[in-house]
Every structure is written in C-alpha cells, then in structure tokens.
Amino acid sequence: MQSERKEHPGDMDEALPDVMMRVVSELHDVAYLIERIEPMLGEIAGDPQANAAHRIQVLQGIDLAVQKTRGLAEFIDTITAALPGSWLVDISTALNLVKLADMQKSLANGLRHGHSQPLTEAAGDFEAF
Q: What is the pTM of this model?
C-alpha cells in the first residue's frame, strides 16, 4: 500500500487516516447543510392542509438523509481510528473526480478548520445534472 513519492513525482501520497478524517469532516458538513434546509421547507407557502402528507414525507426524507450522512461519518471515523498512520494512499486520481472546487481544496490539503464551505458566504460551484 505504501509507495515512493520519487517514483511518481506528481502523486499525492498521504496518510490514509488523515484523508479519511477529511472525508468525515465533509460528511458532517453535508449533514449540517441538509439540516439547515429542513426548517425552510416546513415554511413553504401554500395551503398546509392540502399537502400535509407530502410535506411530512419530504421532511422525514430530509431527516433520514441527515441521519444517514452522520452515520456514515461516524462509521468512517470509527474505522479510521484503527488504521495505522503509516498507510499511505495516492489521492490525486480521486481528487480529479471531485467537481466542487471548495470540497476538492479541503480534501486536498491537510488542514481543516470548521466547515469546508463557509456558511456566511455565497455557495461556490453549482452543478446542474
């Protein structure tokens, strides 16, 4: 699993536990951002009685998405605690698959401070199917 940086000059070999913890942080960010949407959807204009069942289903779906995202983060966090710090992975190929610039930047560098997307600033890249 270990590789020499000299053999692959452009590669980004990093300790696997560090990479996994950045993924955990991103998952927590996703859960938090989804959670912030939930109250807004509860206040959508219109006749609350006419679509009450549908609203409840949507809100339950959002809540489930938050729970699953946090559950995945905790699962990865727990597994990461058992990984040796000497295991290295090349993250360059994986980073090329990440389309959101802010997320790519936060996954690429080893320093994490708070949320990857500052919540007081406008959103970054947007990808419409």
A: 0.68
